[in-house]
Amino acid sequence: MGKSLFEKLWEEHVVCEPEGQQPLLYIDLHIVHEVTSPQAFEGLRVAGRRLRRPERTLATADHNVPTTLNHRPITDPIAAKQLETLRNNCAEFGITLFDIDSPDQGICHVIGPESGATQPGKTIICGDSHTSTHGAFGALAMGVGTSEVEHVLATQTLPQRKPLSMQVRVNGQLPIGTGAKDLALAFIGQMGSGGATGYAVEYVGKAVRGLSMDGRMTLCNLTIEAGARTGLVAPDETTFAYVKGRRFAPEGAGWDKALAHWRTLNSDADAAFDKVV
Questions:
Q1: Which of 253, 18, 199, 229 is nearest to 131 (CA)?
Q2: What parts of the chain have a pLDDT lower than 50?
Q3: Bridge partner residues of 31 (DSSP)
């Protein structure tokens, strides 16, 4: 029997499965922001630990950045303190930070794709529920809590119970005037706000393939509103064209090697799912 995209990604990243414990997944990319990371960094400091793989961690000022054009100084003392703490933690632990004045700064689910750090086949976590956004690139992405943020910082791994798999097939074309958000809301309306709880959801079908990368990101972002932590779209030529040439994307022979692997990241025709919608 063939394997689903989720199965392939999961199996590629399982480090070990200790008896009586959750499987341990290797994490390729960890995106950090100022709200869910301070306690995690303090935990490392108290335990005398360093980062396992600082080069696989990327930080951005996100939740507390004012939307006004002139955002200096930050007048909210709590927001200012959280951003200052992130800045200090990144300097101490050697993490690349897209700070408030950086042209690369942005929402944590957007800076990964825009910089090319988000790539097909990766496992990606962030202390934010909408991390499922990165699944639009054929990545296994999920939001985590602060204690899990600390675990990944210290070990580059994450204990994780394996979810069930769900395929959502959308046939035909979206009507004129509708887009990814309408598709997501239709799915949520059919399944209910908890209908996908405990599943990793893969979106397939002509309507999904017709979406731009922005649309696919929107679709995967909203997967959590149906209760799932992970939404996936298999990578294709649209994905590859988006990633190519970006800051952290592979180049030269590295690109050719990555592309050859990325082309294998799809669900086999005879793959089995726990649920099909």
A1: 229
A2: none
A3: 58, 126
Q: Retrieve residue 277's tokens.
A: 């919608």
- Please report the pLDDT score of residue 115 as a whole number: 97
Query: What stretches of 102-253 adopt beta strand conformation (E)?
Result: 123-126, 140-143, 157-159, 164-169, 199-204, 230-232
Cα separation, 18 vs 144, whole angstroms: 21
Q: Tell me if 60 sits within 8 A of 108, measured CB to CB.
A: yes
CA distances from 228 to 50, 152, 192 (A): 32, 21, 11
pLDDT value of residue 139: 98
d(CA 43, CA 46): 5
| Cα separation, 229 vs 140, whole angstroms | 10
Please confirm whether the linkage preceding 18 is cis (ω < 30° from 0): no
- Indicate the SS3 state at residue 157: strand
Amino acid letter for position 37: S
How many angstroms separate the CA atoms of 258 and 21, rounded? Answer: 32
**Over the range 8-25, which residues count as b (16 or more CB within 10 Å of their CB) and which as e?**
bbbebbeeeeeeeeebbb
Per DSSP bridges, beta strands 24-26 and 14-16 are antiparallel
Predicted TM-score of the model (pTM): 0.95
H or E segment to which residue 150 belongs: helix 146-155
Residue 197 pairs in a beta bridge with none
Report the distance separating Cα 62 and Cα 98, nearest Å.
9
